[in-house]
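notes to self, project folder thing:

trying the whole complex as one job this time. last attempt i did each chain seperately and stitching them together was a nightmare. two parts in total, labels are on each line so i dont mix them up again. if this works i'll redo the older ones the same way
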Amino acid sequence: MKKMIALLLVVGLMMMGLVACTDSDSGDTGTEAPVAEAPADDADVAEEPDEAEAPDAGATDWSSFVLDPSQIPQEKLDTELHIAVSIRGLDNPYIVTKIEGMNMFSEWLDSIGQAHTTQVLDSGGSNDVEINNMRQFSALAGGNAIAYADPNESAIAPALAEAMAEGGGFMGTAWNKPDGVGPMDFTPNWVIHTSADNFTGGYETARLLFENMGGEGNVFVIEGMLGNTAAIDRRRGFDAALESFPGITVAHEDTGNWLTAEALTLTETWLNVTPDVGGIWCANDNMATGVLQALDNAGLLGEVGVTGIDATDDMVAAVRAGNAVATVSANGFLQSSYTLAIAYAAWTGLLDVEELPQGYREFFTPSVLVTTDNVEQFFADFVENAPSFDFTNIFYARASAME
Amino acid sequence: MARANAKTMTITDEFAAKIKLDHKKERLMKWTPILVLVVMIVVFTAIMGNAFFSVGNLVALLNQMSIPLMVALGLTFVIMIGSIDLSINGTVGMAGSLAGVFLLNTRTEFDLGIWGLVLAIFCSVLIGFIIGMMHVKLKIPSFMVSFAFMNICIGIGMLSYGGIHPTIEDPFFRSVPQMSFLGIPAIAWVAIIVFVICFFIQEYTPFGRYVYAVGTDETVPRAVGVNVSRVKVMVFTLAGFCFGVAGVVGALRLGQGQVGIGTGLMFPAQAAVVIGGTALSGGKGGVVNTLIGVLIMTVLFNGLTMVGINPHIRTGIEGAIILIAVILTVKRGATIISK
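result (full assembly):
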């Protein structure tokens, strides 16, 4: 009977969530900049759908949920908590920021007197290794575990959640998960799933690139790894922007497999066929760096607009120097640290995962569009200095509910 | 007619005729890789017109073939002794990462200039030497040792810069990709020099001849007093040198050090060596064959990129063309006598 009621409640909440999502979506697909300038703004924007999710006026306002360290039982503070980030490899500047995020959260735990250890679970790009890593981590920690996982592929997200559930720890995932399965299926252990809005990132960078070209000319498209969720969604965003710019022609397109060297080779070759290219759109910054190098070798640096996604140091420097048009920061610091903060709140028992509505279990994290207009500010906030966050406001990194 | 002749032929005649036929086949086979290359160039020129044969694209081709050529040259010697080296992705990536770290860069305090590059190449040579020693002394199959070292080297490479790629800031080394001499880019000159060194070693040194002998049947050189183990270790060390130079050149080409420089180099290199006509069983082929093989692979990738085939089916087409090239160029049906 309880299950039935819970099921009905979940269905009801999902319906509400859907209604709320469609409302916020109509804004997302418009030409207005949906990518926020700063995370704080997003938190404000995010409050709108919450009212729709809350069935009655007396329900909890989750967006202002505060994790009060003084409420954490001393017994919990003295228990050694095992913390991990599970990633596919260290050779990506963006992924490194996730580890930094864990370290920032770890410092905060130190400040409140929580005993803990941290570790990085590196899968090296292997699904099996990532699942085994998580299983071992969860088993060793014996329930006193929280983790942020970036599933190597969508399909393994539930397996990771299962591995964590076996040990009784709490986990949040990011970017990849299959449709139809989610945190709600592994309550309470799979606490949340978050993602930066890839579609919007692809859309906004493409829009800025086309505007930079005066709305006409040839563009090259360098896609991410084929079949990868992020690559597909970013490309969809590009295509959506292309529809509003009839003067733009895609001269060449291919996959650069997220790699700098491949993007360099593609650009080098295409420049011989289409020397009058006006802009080059890349699905990530690693590839955009290769494009910039190819342009530099051809003496075209600064003359052809380039965009990427991830806001790596190289691309932020290129935007500052006027050699690139834009990049998007998904803010890895924020993603990992706040995922861990929410999982931590669940582990302490102060956050009841079962009560959390779907919109707070699956949500978009904010992105910052880095352009020539705000690059100096971004550089000062994120490159020169690591950002600082208040981890008591655990839903700070929630921009909007996922569709 | 042949049957009538066969009746009157002695066994000796038949044997001689068989060898003659094999030699004829072998001479023909020598030319098939070049034929494949010519056909590809003709096809791509027909489709793309002037763009494919433009000076700009020839320079791009030279740039694009340089790193695969150096990698494949190192691999050629390894394959000629009948072994395999799977460490390529790692050693090239490591050498590239270290080059980025040792030159004036955005990540570390080093500014070793040319010595930084020498040091990066030396590390790769050392890895090659260790792989050879472990293969020979501990009797571990070469593919196993080299596979382990691929991972070790990727680890060393990543540790060297801690996730954020070091961008080279040394003005001289930053401008290397733009340099050229006699119309040939500087990067291609490095590859040409490595090719000449390898060609010289193969043709004019006793070591070069031992490589063939060890690959054909190592009991024979051993019987005449050649130190087979030493030859093998030297082969892996030489491969390490080639991979190291490739990695360093890769870093200069990208303008930054990263493990990604080595990613995806291994199997195209193996394919290039085999397409060129070097037998995986050892004892056959050589660096000139590899040059042709690398040219075929580079022209194929460059041409397909230009033609603009849908990326979803492109990989499949590449595979099919490589398979056809191997079918055409690999020697089959020969008797053991002509090995």
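what i see at first glance: The longest strand of chain A covers residues 248-255.
need to look closer tmrw
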